[in-house]
TrEMBL record:
This is HTH cro/C1-type domain-containing protein. Pfam families: HTH_3. It comes from Persicobacter diffluens. GO terms for molecular function: DNA binding. SUPFAM superfamilies: lambda repressor-like DNA-binding domains (SSF47413). Residues 15-58 form the HTH cro/C1-type domain. Coiled coil: none annotated.
Length: 93
């Protein structure tokens, strides 16, 4: 997900999202710039605010080939000990 673009599409700025989520503007800026990732709770709230739908897909860590060429910035990957456990895809309604 391009958070900056989605905020722009919704007519919101970093500070607007920060106020809606009760977090600092610097926290939202870190999310936008890819320096941090929002918590699951905040990710759900962001999706609701921006009119996005969350899709969670669990994968077998031994079959990483399923995602070759598919991963992009709209997918949040979760790893454990270097193995992918799941990815979270954010899509428009």
């Amino acid at each position: 997900m391009d958070l900056r673009g989605e905020l722009r599409n919704a007519g919101l700025k970093d500070k607007d999202l920060a106020e809606k989520l009760n977090v600092s503007k610097s926290t939202v800026s870190a999310w936008v710039n890819g320096k941090q990732r929002p918590s699951w709770d905040n990710l759900e709230k962001i999706a609701e605010i921006l009119g996005l739908k969350l899709k969670v897909e669990f994968v077998d860590p031994n079959e990483n080939d399923n995602f070759k060429g598919v991963l992009d910035s709209s997918i949040l990957e979760i790893f454990s000990n270097g193995k992918k456990l799941c990815s979270i895809e954010v899509k428009k309604d």
